[in-house]
C-alpha cells in the first residue's frame, strides 16, 4: 500500500536525482482561463516526463542483488524511458516491452538509454502484461509496472509534495489540481500527497475524450474500460482501465474527471509553447486544456495543472502550432 | 558602477518576483558536445527572457515618486516585454520604443502587458536613442536602457548567482559559461557574479556570425561596431556595438567570444525542443549552439550555456524543427 510515509521516503531517494520542476504562470493563460493557472511542467523532468520519478523510486527501492539481475517494464513510451534511464543510472540492465506504434522518438530514446526494446502489436490484441511476465520469468528480471505498483505511485506522489509547497509560496492553498491521467499513478500519488500536505487542494484526473475510463469509472463507482485500446493523439495517457491500486485512492480522494478533445490538447500545447516556453506532448497537455477550455467544470480563483510530459514528435508539434492560426 | 554588492541587492529586490530557473542537462546533448552541458533556461523567466530580471531590478530601484511618472524603454523586444511587465506589476505606466520589424509576437506581447508602443524604422537609420530621449524629456518618464544601465546589469547578474550555486550542486565548479550576447548586459552581469561566487567559472559571449561586435571588440581590445544594424535571424541579440559600461567589465573578466551560424542557432533550438523540452528563440539559442557545435573552442569537462529567451514566432520555430530532418 502506498501511504504518505512511502511518498516522503521516495522523496528522500529521489533527492539529487529527480529535478524539482518549477511552478509556472502566465498572465496570458490566466486571461484565457478566467482565473489563475499554475502549471507544473514535468516535461522538464529527466527523460521528459514525470515517469522518471516513479521509475527511480521503484528501482532504488529494490534490494541491490535483485536490482542487479535487471529491470523489465512495459509502456507506451514515457514509463519506458524513465525505467531505462533509472536502470542505466543504477548500472543495471533493462528490457522494455513497447507497442510497435509508439512514437518514433520514444522508441529511439528508450534504446538510446541502453534498454533492450521488445515491440508488440497493440491493435492486434497482444497483451503487454503476458509478454512482460514471460520475459520476466525467463531472465529473472524484476517487472516494474507503470502505475499499479506501490513504489511507482509513491514516486509520482513527490510531484504532489512539490505542488503543495510551491503553490503555497504563490499564495494558492485551495482549489483543483488537474492531472493528466492514464492508469492513474500520477493522479493517485498526487492525491495522497495533497491529502497530507494541502488538504484543500483536490486532485482531479483529466483524460482525452473517448478514452475517459477513469472519469467514467469515478462517476459509476466502479472500474470501467475504454472501448478501444488505442487511437488517441494523446498516446501517453491511454490505458485500458484504471488500476486496481490507483482507482480506490482516486475514488477516496479525487474530484470528478474531465475529458478534453484532441483539438483542445493541441491548442493547449500551442499555448504552452507561446506563453510558458515549454514543450508538451498531447497527453501531457490535457490537464492544461481542461484548465483553459473547461473552466465551467472548475471552481475557485486558481487552478493548478500538471503538464506531465513533453516527448512529442516534431510533426505533431507543428500540427499543434497550426492551431494558433 | 555595477559591483557584486549591487547584484546581491538586486537579488533581494527580485526575490519572490523573478523565477529561479532550473539548471537542465540531457545525456543526448552531452553526447553531441562531447562533454557535460548544463543549460540555464531563462526562456522560462517571466515574459520569456532574462530581461525581466534587469527590468525589475531597475524599476524597483527607482524612488517611488520618480517611478510613478512612468518608465520608458527602447528594445527589439525582450527588454520591451520585461520593462512593460515590471512597470505594470509596479502599477506604473510604460512607453516602449520598438523597431517596426520586431517579431510580431514581441510587439503584441508588449502591448498586452499594458505598454504604449512607439515603432521606428530600424533599417532606415532612425536612432532609437534619440526618439527615446525626446519622449522621455517630454513626458517626464525615466528611461531604462537595455544594457548600459548599472541596475539592469545588476539584475542580469542574478543569473550568474544562480548558476554558481546550481552548477556547484551538480559538481561543476570550473569551466566556461557561454552567454548569448547583444549589448552585453547579461554577459557582464554574469561575469561579475561569477568573479565573486565561482571564480573558476568564466563567462564568454556568444553572438551570431556577422553580428559578432563583442567578439571582435574583445579580440581588438577596443569597441568595434557591426557593419549592419539588422538582418540576423537572431534579432534579440543584435545591437550596434558593445556598451560603454558592459565592455570594460567583459574585457576584464570574460574569455574570448564565439560566433555561430544562423543554421547552428536553428539546430540548437531543435535540440532544446527535443532534449530539454524548452522553447528557445534563435538569439536565445546561440550559446547552446556554441556548446554543441563549437566544442573545439571550449576547454574542460563541462560547459554551461544560458538559453536567454524563448519569444519566437511559430513559423521560425517550425523552420528550426525542420533541421531535424
User: Pairing-aware structural class of the strands and helices of chain A?
Assistant: alpha/beta
What is the ordering of alpha helices and beta strands of chain A?
HHEHHEHEHEHEHEHEHHEHHEH
Instruction: Kindly state the percentage of residues in helix of chain A.
Output: 40-55%
Estimate what percentage of residues of chain A fall within beta strands.
Answer: 5-15%
The name of the CATH topology of the largest domain in chain A is Rossmann fold
**Most extensive contact:** A-B, 30 and 31 residues
Shape summary of chain A:
globular
Strand order of the largest sheet of chain A: 1-9-6-7-8
Tell me the Rg of chain A in angstroms: 18 Å
Could you say what the CATH architecture of the largest domain in chain A is?
Answer: 3-Layer(aba) Sandwich
Q: Count helical runs of chain A.
A: 14
Organism (chains A, B): Donghicola mangrovi
Cofactor (chains A, B): pyridoxal 5'-phosphate; Ca(2+); Mg(2+); Mn(2+)
Pfam families (chains A, B): PALP (PF00291)
Keywords (chains A, B): Magnesium, Pyridoxal phosphate
Description:
The structure is a homodimer of 325-residue chains. With 325 residues, chain A is an alpha/beta fold. In chain A, 45% of the residues lie in helices and 14% in strands. The first copy, chain A, contains 14 helices and nine strands. Chain A has helices at 4-14, 27-33, 51-61, 64-68, 78-89, 104-112, 128-139, 150-169, 185-197, 213-220, 246-253, 262-276, 286-293, 314-321, and strands spanning 36-41, 71-74, 94-99, 116-120, 142-143, 175-180, 201-208, 258-260, 302-307. In chain A, the strands form two sheets. A five-stranded parallel beta sheet of chain A has the order 1-9-6-7-8, sandwiched between helices. Chain A has a four-stranded parallel beta sheet with strand order 4-3-2-5, with helices on both faces. The first copy, chain A, is globular and about 55 Å long. Chains A, B: Keywords: Magnesium, Pyridoxal phosphate. Chains A, B: It holds the Pfam family PALP.
